[in-house]
Structure formats: C-alpha cells, structure tokens
Write a structure and sequence with these properties.
Elements (H helix, E strand, L loop, with lengths): L1 H31 L6 H19 L3 H24 L8 H24 L14 E4 L2 E4 H23 L1 H11 L1 H6 L4 H26 L8 H14 L4 H22 L4 H15 L13
Antiparallel strand pairs: 1-2
Helix pairs in contact: 1-5, 1-8, 1-9, 1-10, 2-3, 2-4, 2-8, 3-8, 5-6, 5-8, 6-8, 9-10, 9-11, 10-11
Length: 292
C-alpha cells in the first residue's frame, strides 16, 4: 500500500507540471488551430533563460517564473505577428503552421546550440535534493513546489478565461472564429494575445524544467510526442482535457516505471497517443468533427 501511495503521489505531482507544459499548446490550438511544434522549443528556451538568470544573478528558478513569463509573452506575440498572423483564415492554415513552427523550432535550437553548445545543463537549488517525509512516504520538494506552482498558474489561466473580457473574447474565438468577428471581437488582436499567453506558459514551464529535468538545445524533440499525447488525450483545444490527460498519463507512467523500470515509462505516452488517435481521435473532451 505504501508503494502504491508513493507512486501515486509522485505521478500526480509530475502530472501537474505536465499539465502546465501542455496548457499553452492546447490553448494556442483552441484559439487559432495552430499545431505549435515549437512549443517544447519555447520551453527549452525559457529553461536556458532561467539557467542564465540563476548562474549570473543567483535567481531562484521559482522566482525566475516571474521574469520568464513576461519575456516569453512578448516573444510569443512577436513570433505570431511575424510568422503566423497571415493566412489565419485559410482552410490549410493548420497544416501550414506545422511546417512554420517546425522551422521555428530548428531556428531556436540552432541559436541555443550556438550560445550554449550541446552541453547538458540543469539548475540545482537546495530544495532540488530535499524531501518531506510522512511516515514511509517521501515527497520531493522540487516536484512539490513545481506541481503547486503549475496548478496555481493553470487555475489563474482558467479564471482569466472565465471572468475577464479578454477571456470572453478568447473563448468566443475558440468556439467560432467567424462568429466572434461578426459580433465585434478583434480576432487578430485576441489571437496575438492568446499566442503570447501560450508562450508565457511555456516560459513558466521552462523555469520549472530547469530544476526538474536536465536539458540541452536539441532535447526539445523528445517532448513533442509527449506533449501531443497529453493534448490529444484530453482533446485538442480543451484546457481541462490537457489537465486530465496530463494527470492520467503521468500517474500511468509512474506505475509503469515502478513496475517495469524507467526505460518503459515514455512508452506510456506514445502508446496512448496511438490508441486515442485510433479509437477516439477527438480526445476525451473534444467534439467529434462532422463531415460536411
């Protein structure tokens, strides 16, 4: 029973972090139908920003979240206006964004490789090697702090989407882009802000990644399928679905790792992506697309 609870707790804490990782990706798809292959690269870029702030200024990575988010918000808005704003109403826009963001990911990787080389990096605050013990169960402080931070940020995003004017506009655009424009929503402005918010979430994710995982410039490719599996399981464009998918798959991966070994843990995400696309491609919370 102790082993079960220990594995469950570790899976849930990591699942909260994964939910934040996937939150920006699913938001961007929901508003603009952009499949942002570069989202993991955004996270790695933010991780290197947090690493630089820590090495040069001694800034704790949890505090770096407050710096990373506005930096990446502005970066995201600039990227959207520069590369993704044109052709947003094209029926082939989603396919175009896959190619554009794939190229963007390569560009970010090249810049990071030039600046930091291919050396594996990590930030090591004191709590990264500390744990809280409750009887025979231990809770790593790093995962606990990261999980709590992630859930707070996701909760704040949910409140913004539900109770603010920009949130109303974002949700209207997610439901029907043309109808939102008809009732006076500035869809282009909303799309720019939404992409900035997605990048800001990547900024927070990168700060958390900097002390939870090791990272290097080309490592973002390992996260593409993992994040897509979280988003697809919950339903593309569904924030709550991303949270449920992240918690479910993180717990499942934790039990697979405990039973079969950590080598098999990533298979959980890849297998779930394959199965959900085969059985229910719209995801758990997504709506089935009707044939025209």
């Amino acid at each position: 029973m102790t082993d079960f609870l220990q594995t469950l707790i570790l899976g849930l804490m990591l699942g909260g972090v994964y939910a934040l990782f996937a939150g920006g990706l699913t938001l961007v798809f929901g508003v603009m139908r952009i499949v942002n292959i570069a989202h993991p690269a955004f996270i790695f870029l933010a991780a290197f920003i947090a690493y630089t702030l820590n090495k040069n200024l001694g800034l704790d990575p949890l505090v770096a979240v407050l710096f990373n988010m506005p930096i990446m918000f502005v970066f995201g808005m600039g990227i959207y206006r520069l590369l993704l704003a044109k052709g947003a109403d094209s029926p082939r826009y989603t396919q175009m964004t896959v190619l554009i963001t794939f190229g963007l990911a390569l560009m970010i990787e090249g810049i990071l490789s030039f600046l930091f080389t291919g050396t594996i990096r990590s930030v090591n605050p004191p709590y990264a090697v500390q744990a809280i013990f409750i009887g025979d169960i231990f809770i790593p402080r790093a995962q606990l702090y990261a999980g709590i931070t992630s859930l707070i940020l996701i909760g704040l995003l949910a409140l913004v989407l539900r109770y603010t004017r920009i949130g109303y506009a974002i949700r209207a655009t997610m439901q029907n882009r043309a109808a939102a424009r008809t009732v006076g929503v500035n869809v282009e402005r909303v799309s720019t802000i939404a992409f900035g918010i997605g990048a800001a979430l990547a900024g927070a994710s990168g700060a958390l990644m900097s002390f939870l995982f090791s990272f290097f410039p080309s490592g973002h490719w390992e996260w593409v399928a993992l994040l897509l599996s979280l988003v697809v399981l919950g339903g593309m464009g569904q924030l709550m679905g991303a949270v449920v998918g992240a918690l479910s798959l993180a717990v499942a991966a934790a039990f697979v790792s405990d039973t079969l070994g950590p080598t098999w843990s990533p298979l959980t995400f890849y297998l779930s992506l394959f199965v959900i696309l085969l059985i229910r491609p719209q995801g758990l919370f997504g709506k089935k697309m009707e044939a025209e």
